[in-house]
Amino acid sequence: MDRHARVFSWSNRGFRWSVVSLVLLTVVSLLVGFVWLPSVHPDFTAQGLWAAICRAAGVPSRWYEDTSAQQPAVASHVVLERNMARVTDAGSVGRGATLALNCTMCHGAQGMSTSNAPNLAGQYPEVIIKQLMDYQSGKRVHALMQGLAAPLSEENIRDLAAYYASLPKARTAPTFYDESLPALVRVGAPLRNIAPCISCHGGVDQKFGAPWIEGMPKDYLVGQLHAFRTGARGNDVQGQMRAVARTMTDQEIQEVSEFYARKAAAAGVQGH
């Protein structure tokens, strides 16, 4: 037996210890990497050795998994159609005014809230239609509004939307879109994929289905942005408002809300 054969022979004590040490080191490394380290995480669930190996390797443990029970929740069942923005029935506004008597305590006699409820005067019809239908289906949650919306027929909802759309909008103060505006309102935040508020909510353009928010009570706007940010409100069909609010800071929420609220406050409209 030559010299190299003797070195790698099992009869060589040094070779035996090297092999045993390597095996022990491998076992300890596996226990630490696949058992101990994962177990210290609060969301750890033991799913067997194969699942542990797959997690460590960064690959799925199941390639063909039934996801039929994991479909994402539908944000809204309402499909926005252009005819929602048109009032074709001459009597619709009158019928809506009668129905709106149930809404005056919160939304004001002429659609201008004296509380922290949203102003509805001049609101786009499709916005009111969608929100009432979302309350009916439970896609938007509010104990009082869900109860009030539940008995409304589709015609009732369209009549209410026609009435409030016929009222003058809350904004009466001059609008100046200049460098003094909050950055999110004027230019958005491109690095966070946030479009300017004025590109959807008026001022420059209005996205069909996006509400008119100038003159809204500040506390209402702050509350809705926080709800979108936390996911407490999720009836924005494509999740655009949740995506925007999720990256907004508390200061940005305050600045944007104050800007839109003072539109009416500056002209003495707020509180009518």
UniProtKB/TrEMBL annotation:
It holds the Pfam family Cytochrom_C. The chain crosses the membrane at residues 15-37. The keyword Transport applies. Residues 91-168, 183-264 form the Cytochrome c domain. InterPro entries: Cyt_c-like_dom (IPR009056), Cyt_c-like_dom_sf (IPR036909), Cytochrome_c_Oxidase_Subunit (IPR050597). PANTHER family: CBB3-TYPE CYTOCHROME C OXIDASE SUBUNIT FIXP, CYTOCHROME C4. This is Cytochrome C. It comes from Caldimonas brevitalea.
